[in-house]
C-alpha cells in the first residue's frame, strides 16, 4: 500500500492587501503554512520591499515562484500581442502555471483571501489535489477588518498604494490612466520599459499598445493637456490620503463593481 501524502498548506501572496492580511491572520493558526509569491519578473520594487517586510513578520521565507520562461519569451510566442483582459496569457503562464508546478500532485489546501464582503471568485484550480478555502469569507472578515489586521500587525500597506491601487506587474494593462502617470513619475525606467513593448506593424499598421486605441505616449500627452487645462485633472487621491486610516486609502477600487476589467485575483488579491 502506498504511503498517504501529507497535506500541504499553501498561501499565495500577491503583494496586495487581502492576501497579506490573510497571512497575518493565519500565522498562528496554521504554523505549517508555505508562503509563495508568483513572480513575473516585472513586479514593482515596492512589492519586493513589502514581501521582505512580510517575511520579517511571518518569520518564514516567502518562496518566489517563477516561470521557466520569461515574459519576453511568451510575448514572442504570442507574436507580439501584449496581454490584455481578453487575452490574459500573462496570468496563466507567469502566475498560475508556476503555482501549479510548485504544488505538483501533492494534496494541498490553498488559502484564498477573498473577503466576506466580496462577490467575486478567486483562482480555484481545477487540479483535483488542490482544495481552496476562504477563511475571510467563512469568518465574516470584511474590508475594514483587513485594514485593522494590517495596521495592528505593524506591517501596514505596500508603498505603491500611494499612487496605485493594485499589486501586479509594473505594466499591468488593468491600470487606470492616473496609475500610468504615477508609474512614469515614480519609476520612469519602468514606464520606458513598458513603452518599449508597444509596437506597430509597418505593413498592416496594426498597433500593439497596452491600452486599447492609444499608446502610452498619447495617454501621457492627453493627461498633461488635461492637467494644463486644469479641467478634470485627477487629484493624487491616494497621496492625499496618506495620513488617513487605511480604510479610506482603500475606498477604491474595491468599491467599483466587479467586471471583466478586474485583474486576476492571483495578481491583485
Ligand atoms: S499583474 Fe497584470 S500584467 Fe501581470 S500577470 Fe497579472 S494581469 Fe498580467
What does this protein look like?
With 269 residues, the protein is an alpha/beta fold. It has one domain: HUPs (Rossmann fold, 3-Layer(aba) Sandwich). 40% of the residues lie in helices and 10% in strands. The protein has twelve helices and seven strands. It has helices spanning 17-26, 45-58, 71-77, 89-103, 135-139, 143-153, 177-186, 188-197, 216-229, 237-240, 246-249, 265-268, and strands at residues 8-12, 34-38, 62-65, 108-111, 130-133, 199-200, 207-208. The strands form two sheets. The chain has a five-stranded parallel β-sheet, with helices on both faces. It has a two-stranded antiparallel sheet with strand order 6-7. Strand 1, helix 1 (17-26) and strand 2 form a beta-alpha-beta unit. Helix 1 crosses helix 6 (143-153), helix 7 (177-186) packs across helix 8 and helix 7 (177-186) crosses helix 9. It is globular, with a radius of gyration of 19 Å. Residues 232-261 have low confidence and may be disordered. The structure holds iron/sulfur cluster. Iron/sulfur cluster binds at residues 40, 83, 88, 90-91, 94-95, 168-169, 172, 174, 263-264, 267.
Describe, in short, the structure shown:
By secondary structure, this protein is of the alpha/beta class. 40% of the residues lie in helices and 10% in strands. α1 crosses α6, α7 crosses α8 and α7 packs across α9.
Helix-strand blueprint:
Blueprint: E1 8-12, H1 17-26, E2 34-38, H2 45-58, E3 62-65, H3 71-77, H4 89-103, E4 108-111, E5 130-133, H5 135-139, H6 143-153, H7 177-186, H8 188-197, E6 199-200, E7 207-208, H9 216-229, H10 237-240, H11 246-249, H12 265-268
Parallel strand pairs: 1-2, 1-4, 2-3, 4-5
Antiparallel strand pairs: 6-7
Helix pairs in contact: 1-6, 7-8, 7-9
The chain binds iron/sulfur cluster.
The site of iron/sulfur cluster (SF4) has 14 residues, from helix 4.
Amino acid at each position: 500500500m502506498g504511503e498517504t501524502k501529507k497535506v500541504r498548506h499553501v498561501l499565495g501572496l500577491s503583494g496586495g492587501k487581502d492576501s497579506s492580511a490573510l497571512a497575518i491572520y493565519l500565522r498562528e493558526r496554521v504554523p505549517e503554512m508555505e508562503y509563495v509569491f508568483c513572480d513575473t519578473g516585472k513586479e514593482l520594487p515596492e512589492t519586493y520591499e513589502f514581501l521582505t517586510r512580510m517575511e520579517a513578520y511571518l518569520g518564514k521565507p516567502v518562496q518566489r515562484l517563477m516561470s521557466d520562461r520569461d515574459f519576453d519569451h511568451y510575448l514572442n510566442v504570442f507574436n507580439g500581442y501584449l496581454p490584455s483582459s481578453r487575452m490574459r496569457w500573462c496570468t496563466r503562464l507567469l502566475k498560475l502555471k508556476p503555482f501549479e508546478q510548485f504544488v505538483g500532485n501533492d494534496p494541498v489546501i490553498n488559502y484564498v483571501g477573498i473577503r466576506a464582503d466580496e462577490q467575486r471568485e478567486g483562482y480555484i484550480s481545477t487540479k483535483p489535489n488542490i482544495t481552496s478555502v476562504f477563511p475571510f469569507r467563512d469568518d465574516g472578515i470584511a474590508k475594514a477588518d483587513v485594514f485593522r489586521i494590517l495596521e495592528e500587525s505593524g506591517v501596514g500597506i505596500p508603498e505603491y498604494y500611494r499612487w496605485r491601487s493594485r499589486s501586479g506587474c509594473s505594466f499591468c494593462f488593468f491600470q487606470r490612466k492616473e496609475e500610468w502617470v504615477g508609474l512614469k513619475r515614480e519609476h520612469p525606467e519602468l514606464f520606458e520599459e513598458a513603452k518599449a513593448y508597444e509596437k506597430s506593424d509597418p505593413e498592416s499598421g496594426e498597433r500593439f499598445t497596452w491600452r486599447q486605441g492609444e499608446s502610452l505616449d498619447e495617454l501621457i500627452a492627453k493627461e498633461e493637456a488635461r492637467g494644463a487645462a486644469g479641467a478634470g485633472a485627477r487629484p493624487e487621491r491616494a497621496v492625499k490620503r496618506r495620513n488617513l486610516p487605511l480604510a479610506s486609502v482603500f475606498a477604491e477600487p474595491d468599491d467599483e463593481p466587479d467586471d471583466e476589467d478586474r485583474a486576476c485575483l492571483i495578481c491583485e488579491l
